[in-house]
Amino acid sequence: MENVQKSQIVSIVIPTYNEKDNIINLIKRINSELNGNIIIVDDNSEDKTGEAVKSLGLENVKVFIRTDEKGLGSALRYGISKALEIGSSFIVTMDADFSHDPIYLKSMLDKARQGYDLVIGSRYIKGGRIENWSYKRKMISWGANLLVRLLLRSSLKDNTSNFRVYSRGASLQVLQCNTANGYEFQICAIYKILKSKMRVCEVPITFRDREKGQSKLSYSQILNWFAYVLKLYFSS
Ligand SMILES: Nc1nc2c(ncn2[C@@H]2O[C@H](COP(=O)(O)OP(=O)(O)O)[C@@H](O)[C@H]2O)c(=O)[nH]1
Ligand SMILES: [Mg+2]
């Protein structure tokens, strides 16, 4: 197990919505990989995900159940600001559904400690892979990344991954994405970080589709995402 120095607090922010069948095992897996704070931001899930995590009673796990706000981006901002408040040097974001394997945390954090402000767990660089995703989901992800690379001139291959490590400086930048409340948050975050000329890198991961629970990516989320990217393009 990795020893995290006190001066370099690591926090792992996980947004959850109806992830009761995944989150408990994921927390156990993360705790076996590293010492860090785990911050769960649950949007009042009907399946009582938040309550299930609370009942674990783990000291390093904080649960925030929001009843007044909803959305992936808004939950990520909330969790990132809580992580900053407790003095985290590195803030990881990852999904609750095991698509992001905690096994990669160490290598991603190593890169962050080398001075990269944003480290992305990437499916689209050499060594990265996707397993069991439908052809349709692969096409959506591929098209979304092509669009971001072309329109917003991103140098990154995987712009839509939520498996990331942010430095404190990068976290402060992404908190400015205060209108990106859904899946578009990932794009806004990259846009802000690249614009401020921070150091970015990608680490290859194997992404696996969830085995339990359901994806929350709806057609209306996809449309919102698309409109947001166009808005960024025309305003830049
Ligand atoms: N708090 C919160 N979490 C969300 C919301 N929408 C999605 N998530 C979480 O964000 C992560 C990614 O969502 P997921 O449904 O797996 O999207 P997909 O991987 O693109 O199909 C998971 O941990 C979800 O539980 C939301 O509105 N609020
Ligand atoms: Mg998922």
UniProtKB/TrEMBL annotation:
GO terms for molecular function: dolichyl-phosphate beta-D-mannosyltransferase activity. It comes from the Archaea. Residues 11-170 form the Glycosyltransferase 2-like domain. GO terms for cellular component: membrane. GO terms for biological process: dolichol-linked oligosaccharide biosynthetic process; GPI anchor biosynthetic process; protein O-linked glycosylation via mannose. Coiled coil: none annotated. Keywords: Glycosyltransferase, Transferase. InterPro entries: DPM1-like, Glyco_trans_2-like, Nucleotide-diphossugar_trans. PANTHER family: DOLICHOL-PHOSPHATE MANNOSYLTRANSFERASE SUBUNIT 1. Belongs to the glycosyltransferase 2 family. This is Polyprenol monophosphomannose synthase.
